[in-house]
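Z., the sequence and structure:
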Amino acid sequence: MRYTTGPDVVNELLANLQSSGYIVLGPTNLDGVVLLSELHSADQLASGWVDVQSPGSYRATVSGNRVFSAANGPLSVKTYLHPGEIALGEVSHTDHDYITEARHPREKYAFFGIHPCDLAAVKVLDRALMFEGFEDPTYAALRKNAVFIVANCGRSGGTCFCASMGTGPQARDGYDIALTELPGRFILDATEESMPLLRGIDLRPATAEDLQGERSLMQEVAAGMRRRIEHSNPAARMYEGLESPVWGEVAQRCLACGNCTMVCPTCFCNTTKDVTDLNSGSVKKVRLWDSCLSRDFTYGAGGNPRRDRKARYRQFVMHKFAYWTDQFELYGCVGCGRCITWCPVGIDISETVNSVMGGNRDGGPVKEVARVG
């Protein structure tokens, strides 16, 4: 059932989450950048902050008083559920023996005010990191205890293309609570399991006028997106473009810095290293984010199959728009636009994909599941 509630829902819901033992993470302003970080009070929310994003450019200013007025900053849910650096285990030495200890995180995260594309990214990570029989224990432990309060988009960001990827601007599923901010009120949807988190909050059945206001807002946001993937089944078309000259043209600009993979909410490539403490005689196995754009990432005993930037950039894009559909039956890109904004040279992945597809366009939304072959 859909409900209407007043603006106080933000404070009340935040208090309920904290009293339930959650570490609440939401959009905050830090030095002019909207970041997903821990909230102790609603005053820390980046209310009124509006970001202007374009390829290789980000600027945020205060404009208005909407609570969830900013698009995506550089941090996503991945930052917390699949940490950039984490100790997986430790071997320590005592007078009698060596002791091996596995590390299992226990944090309970409540992601408050994330956008639908980031919620869709969790679905992507679930497919890879919770694949039956091959579950990542760190991700699985943190994911099990997490709740998601999604804020449907009230404006389109400058680099967003979630509408054409079918991941926004309104969340369809996967959330515990969904909020749509309208003037002076919120439309709220919640699963039955999450209703205890709404204790003490005044909820009224949403009227037809409220729901029409929500529909109109979502249509306006989707229509305002200036970028899109111009084919409803890019996977098949991308395979046809494996030898396209576009890859070499874009690679001439690419710095192979890895910024796109670091801010991407679905990239999960990593490496491990041993960290030795000579004082305590212990050794930790530490996992770190890595990038397929790094020259050393694919180095093996037989050499490196992707020595040039063209091959590595193609791998990055093909993984998102083609290979993923073979492995997991969904796309690895959710259209959040972060890789465009935070690329130092402003490479636009939507332009790359459309160019590789060679202009064979039908203008329809990308299919959520695409089987290739």
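Residues 369-373 have pLDDT under 50 and may be disordered. Residues 309-328 form the longest helix (20 residues).

Let me know what you think.
H.
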